[in-house]
Batch of 2 targets.
Target 1
Amino acid sequence: MALLSKKDANLILDPLADNNPITIQVLGICSALAITAELKASIVMAFSVLFVMGMGNVVISLMRDIIPSKIRIIVQLVVVAALVIMVDQVLKAFAYELSKTLSVFVGLIITNCIIMGRFEAFALANGPWRSFLDGIGNAAGYGLILVIIGFFRELLGSGTLLGFKVLGDPIEKTGLYSIGYENNGFMLLSPMALIVVGLIIWVQRSRNKALIEEN
Amino acid sequence: MSLKSNLHNLKERYKGKKMAPAFNAIHTFLYAPNETTHSGSHVRVVDDLKRTMNTVIMALVPVLLFGIFNAGYQHNAAVDAANGVIRQASIFGNFLTWENFIMGAWTVLPLVIVSYAVGLAVEFLFAVIKGHEVEEGYLVTGMLVPLIVPIDTPLWMLAVAVVFGVVIGKEVFGGTGMNILNPALTIRAFLFFAYPTWMSGDKVWVHQAVDLAGGPDAISGETILGYLAQGKGAEMSYSVADMFFGFIPGSVGETSTILILLGGLFLIFSKIASWRIMVSAVAGALVMGLIFNGVVDAGWITETSKFYGLMSFAFWQHLIVGGLAFGIVYMATDPVTGAQTNRGKWVYGFFIGFISVLIRVFNPAYPEGVFLAILLMNVFAPTIDHYVVRGNINKRLKRAKNATILPRDVEGKAQELKAETV
């Protein structure tokens, strides 16, 4: 017997590709541009959002019958804020350097439109298990794109991956640098991150024509 | 059988195949195609898009040739300067020499070849994939690109930038005629942001200066704007004539203002480029230069200010140094990315000149801003056109509203009837 029914599995798999929060719904772009200059920061950000969304969706789903609809936005914000503060404190305690790199952007997970979007669109209308899967799926879809962007930006912009000098040393001129290769400083700037997102969207839509809108 | 009919037969044979656009492009580049009208009531003119592009390239050839000589000349001048020999430029004495030409051609022609090979490869690829005809857009871009980069730009960097510029700057918008940004300037901007060390400083403008840096034979050549930005205007040994004729370091094709001026006149008389944009851009640059000169004259900034050097530079000399003249004549007048309406062209051109000098003076890292100004105004060109068209519509609407129609009935009172607004 499969671990998840087909319907439940789709909750996780859909946001990874055909209903990706970044490339299809075009949500959460802001943080995708801001923190993806390094792969490590992208990965930490991805896991932070994974935690916040998984837990947040479960909490909201459990409380969905007792939240008065007039004040539901405030309730949702309180839940996200509480979870984000937890993540922020953990990062500050165990990965201080990294939390400095991510700076304000961990706090800004609160304003990530994907999270509030899933609360509104899914958790308020579904049970905790399915909400959990939906939260994990969407956060994974978001994280996947973050990691792809972070990979290319760090590799081409700094010549490193997770801090390792995979292309050689630019100062001592080893590896690729010995034949005249140079890092692309444009990759470290946010506009290039947007262009990378655009290229990912381009590749995705040309592989799956069903995603192309009629106009 | 002539080459023309051979190509025509090839075209017929490959009709409907994937590779057809590639053959058609070569055919129509060399000859007028057989399918054109030969009779009937059609206007038959020869100035199609290809002819337009070729005219611009003809206007660029003198600039390219000068750039080749200047590349060699600047190298030799820098070597002389490093040895303490003072060198006076003379056209036939030490400028138009075989030595300069060979050295220049050896460095400039690879830039041209890489630019065309990579750019046309991308164009052909997209034409084959998308199944449309190859567009002529790259003919001019390919010639502009080597002229606006520093002489020793590594070829692989140029190739990367050309791919980026053609794909992101043009093809994603739908190809030639649909792009909102000038592709050549997109390529320049990409190089500038991606590899800033190769685009600025006192080493990149002179051939081999980067290779020789740090050694006993080290040479350097700072641009005039570079001298001024560092407040070293007094150390500069270039005369106004040097600046005007172009015996100064700089990007390959941008230095000779007089040849650019002649190219510009040629483009104006052949009605390829808009004189409105050129005139208003020059006016804009002069106005901004005058403002800065006024600021200096009023004593609002002191000599210790880091902007003093560029602000106190005579306003009209801004036109003959850096890439301003080249940008105004060959890039701002791009008919695709510029403003389309006549009144819009005045506004568009004026701001290009105005903002160019503004960026030039205030950019702390890089004392030149023509390419940024033109790209910025490229983005605003449709907005300018929109308001010009809107303004025209409103004006005519008002006229229609106020128009009076006299009744035909002459017997009745001359009652004035308001025309219905459309």
Target 2
Amino acid sequence: MTQASVVLALVVVTALAFDFTNGFHDTANAMATTIATKALRPKTAVALSGLLNLVGAFLSVQVALTVTNAVVKIQNSNGTPKASLVSDGGSALLLIILAGLAGGIIWNLFTWLLGLPSSSSHALFGGLIGATIAGLGWAGVNWNGDGSKLDGVVGKVLLPAVLSPVIAGVVALVGTWIIHRITAGLAARYTDQGFKWGQIGSASLVSLAHGTNDAQKTMGVITLALIASGDWTDTKNIPFWVKVACALAIALGTYLGGWRIIRTLGKGLVDIAPAQGMAAQSSSAAVILASSHLGFALSTTHVATGSVLGSGLGRPGAQVRWRVAGRMITAWLITLPAAGVVGALMWGIGHLIGGLAGALVVFALLVAAAVAVWLRSRRAPIGSHNVNDDWDVAAGPEHAAAVAAAEAPVAPAPATVTAAS
Amino acid sequence: MSDNLGFALEGAWKVLFAGLVLGAGLPLLFALGIRSLAWGAGGEAEVHESGVTGPKAQPIGTVLAFVLFAIVVLGIALGITFVVASGFGKALSFEHIYPTIVPKH
């Protein structure tokens, strides 16, 4: 095994790890409301969502090879890597990708620890942008596109991030209000049973759409790495094993369930009744599908959160916990730059040490950060058993600790993470 | 920046419109369906004064309910078709009012 192939293997493993975090970070988007209203049992919900993500990932036949072009200039428009980056066996490009992925993963894990639904695509793009700035300078980033269409960091990432939660929120608000007006005065067994099925249907649609959209991004990144190292040349197709591996990684991640985030979105933001759950989930499904139909890039997380918020505003008498909402919005704002800083740091460390050793150190740091976050999470575990506990009522010392962990501004986390926040 | 802002706002209006039609419109029909179902069942399905028997069953309500549910199911089927079609590099066209699958341009 040559040095280059070891680095390539590290990149592939890291990309699959990112795909995995992408899965469990986003389970909440599809299933949080369904779990909160008890339309499905927690385990059933994550299993259904995982399965649909798997199916969705296999449905994405179209090549997503140019995924990084939206934000950075490391690829030509036909998907091949820039010649200047592959002159030495692709190691320059591989380091940027590795560092970028590491930045995305670390930020995803950190926000998961805090139970915050931040966007996985922002984390990935942020990491890649940071690593690219460190490696190629500011000019390596596609900030604004060429002005002919919605493109660049501003057009593909920042503007949709501001607009999409507002759109989803308005749709969910209108939907919730209408449903409550129409079904007022009906016996609860009629409405709840009906809305249960409505929720399961719309949540399934969101899961399927998530699988097709998000697994593709990792498939594109891995294939780019393979092309850079000279192990793949076809820019029209993705190796079959890459597709299988990515589909399995995102499905397993989803099945694991990001219970901390599910709890925040399902119980923390608003107290969700079945009618609201259906309105919120329908809004998410419609907005996600409509925007991908119209080529308007957006984050599933932002849409889902906007919908839940809107459903809280639409039900007469429902309260929104604005403190939780504020923390979420803060997390959204800092996701891109924070993942970028971690990505840039990782690139710097990898570059300073250089070669195979550099890549190995970046990988080791990533593993250390992941283990540290996981150990920290064990202090106040949240799982399928307590995901639906009341948000405000402290059930015991364990719960109080969980709330404290979830509401602490910055948890004492591993050095790499604190440095980034 | 200003170009992007223009494109984004243009896209946002379309997404909002489609979102309202599908994301709030289908739940509206679904809620009407549930209302009809309860109307069709009569008796205890609707909240009424205690001590009085509930309203009479209206079979037409049940029929109406299933018509409404069928429309909702069609809407969801359209959504799934869209996801599958875009995965295979196709798009849905609403050129002929009813949706057709066309190659993505």
